[in-house]
Amino acid sequence: MSKKKPVTPVSPDGMEILFFYQCPYCARHVPVVSPTQPGMIVCDSCRESFPIIPVDEYGLHYVRMMLAGGKAAVDPDFL
Ligand SMILES: [Zn+2]
């Protein structure tokens, strides 16, 4: 095993927002990353697919901006 030099903790340099859609078949809350387009998703529990209502892209953009792409989430000085 090669000797690695210690790495300082890395802060986020981007972010996504996770949304949950309840599966109509098994009621599991299926996580989906920022679904801005309508479409079908597959439940990772029962494997059934179902259509979802997309989220508003402008709302996502606003939240990303508010948190400076994730940087503000670790540094209170950003807020
Ligand atoms: Zn399901």
Number of H- or I-type helical stretches: 2
Could you estimate the helical fraction of the residues in percent? 10-25%
Mean pLDDT value: 90
* Number of β-strand runs: 4
Low-confidence stretches: none
- Kindly estimate the percentage of residues that lie in beta strands according to DSSP: 15-25%
Shape: flat
Alpha-carbon distance between the two ends: 42 Å
Major sheet, described briefly?
2 strands, antiparallel
Task: State the secondary-structure class.
Answer: alpha+beta
Oligomer: single chain
Cα-atom radius of gyration: 18 Å
Q: Summarize the helix and strand pattern as letters.
A: EEEEHH
Counted up, domains total: 1
Ligands (ions, cofactors included): zinc ion
Strand order of the largest sheet: 1-2
Description:
The chain is of the alpha+beta class and about 80 residues long. It has helices spanning about 55-65, 70-75; strands at about 20, 30-35, 40, 50. Strands 1-2 form a two-stranded antiparallel sheet. Strands 3-4 form a two-stranded antiparallel sheet. It is flat, with a radius of gyration of 18 Å. Zinc ion (ZN) binds near residues 28, 46 and 48.
Q: In short, what is this structure?
A:
The chain has helices spanning 57-66, 71-74, and strands spanning 18-22, 29-33, 39-42, 49-52.
Q: Which structural traits does this protein have?
A:
two-stranded antiparallel ribbon; 4 strands; alpha+beta
Topology (SSEs and partners):
Layout: E1 18-22, E2 29-33, E3 39-42, E4 49-52, H1 57-66, H2 71-74
Antiparallel strand pairs: 1-2, 3-4
The structure holds zinc ion.
Zinc ion (ZN) binds next to loops.
